[in-house]
Specification:
2 copies of one chain form a homodimer. With 145 residues, chain A is mainly alpha-helical. Chain A has a single domain, classed as Winged helix-like DNA-binding domain superfamily/Winged helix DNA-binding domain (Arc Repressor Mutant, subunit A). Helices cover 56% and strands 4% of the residues of chain A. Chain A has helices at residues 6-20, 28-35, 39-51, 75-82, 105-125, 129-144, and strands spanning 55-57, 64-66. A two-stranded antiparallel sheet of chain A has the order 1-2. Chain A binds a DNA duplex (30 and 30 nucleotides) through residues 1, 4-6, 27-29, 37-38, 40-41, 43-44, 46-47, 57-63, 90.
DNA sequence: ATGCGTTGTAACTATTGACATTACAACAAA
DNA sequence: TTTGTTGTAATGTCAATAGTTACAACGCAT
């Protein structure tokens, strides 16, 4: 069981936007070429990022740009933009209320699982887009040499 | 996107085993009654827990018991027993190698996403079965009053 | 040793979500 | 108005979860 590829794809898109802004026209076709998925996936993802206030998209003429400073965007922002914000774990539906265990599992487990959820979110929040950009630039530079 | 209900179900089963051991015969039918899922799901889950060395199951006669001290079992053990151990995030398959972004996203993102993975695992590892049992007993006691 | 209740599995189905793809209306600039 | 693009709906495919039925293998009790 794992998450969809939405977060990686969205991050890839953001990195492209920063890298190519001003140099290329960032249409969904262009982005689809780098990410290597269908342009409609790009448009849907871009739509979610736009709703979340992370990017601006020029309808008609085409092209996407960041709406915020890369230092102000964390992976948690991206995650929340593209994934449904629900609990990490899916609790089984109807534990038996007449069983001493069944009627309390929820109470006992929910807190702990929320903690796991929070740990994951905190880690995502600790990574900002600027860091990724710096890493990326570094890789690109060291490749040229 | 979220995990399956396997971890909650497996934890529920373990709590039942501890709570009812010696008092009830812990057949898959009995457990299915508390968890409220199909007995086959219980048997499959129990099979995974057995493979992981967490429980012992008496075939034929029926009945399940812990194979380890509840203090020695963490939620990470349970998680690993019942979920496929793969990366939390599914990376999109073939980023364009001819694009400066596409050929480096993996390098840039993998470490960070592994970090998120590790954070989640660490949190799971910090919760042991004994703690859950204590919590559960406490809830049961305070209800009686 | 035979019958009974249980486990271990395989097979089948239904449901859901991810992702790809086609199609087309809405939109903005030249 | 033409052109290229976005936004979005509709559809198809695939994989995973979970429910269910069925039955062989197993182990105790009589």
């Amino acid at each position: 069981m794992q998450f969809s590829s939405r977060l990686p794809i969205a991050t890839h898109i953001l990195l492209c936007i920063v890298t190519f802004d001003g140099k290329e026209k960032l249409t969904s076709d262009f982005l689809a070429g780098s990410v290597n998925v269908n342009p409609v996936i790009i448009r849907n993802t871009l739509g979610k990022l736009k709703t979340a206030g992370l990017v601006k998209v020029d309808a008609g003429i085409g092209g996407a740009h960041l709406a915020k400073d890369p230092q102000q965007i964390t992976l948690l922002d991206v995650f929340r933009a593209v994934e449904e914000e629900d609990d990490l774990f899916h609790f089984h539906d109807n534990p038996n209320p007449d069983c001493p265990v069944g009627c309390h599992v929820h109470d006992v487990l929910d807190d702990k699982l929320d903690g796991v959820n929070d740990a994951m979110k905190a880690q995502l929040a600790s990574i900002c887009l600027q860091t990724l950009i710096d890493d990326l630039q570094h890789k690109i530079q060291s490749e040229k040499e």
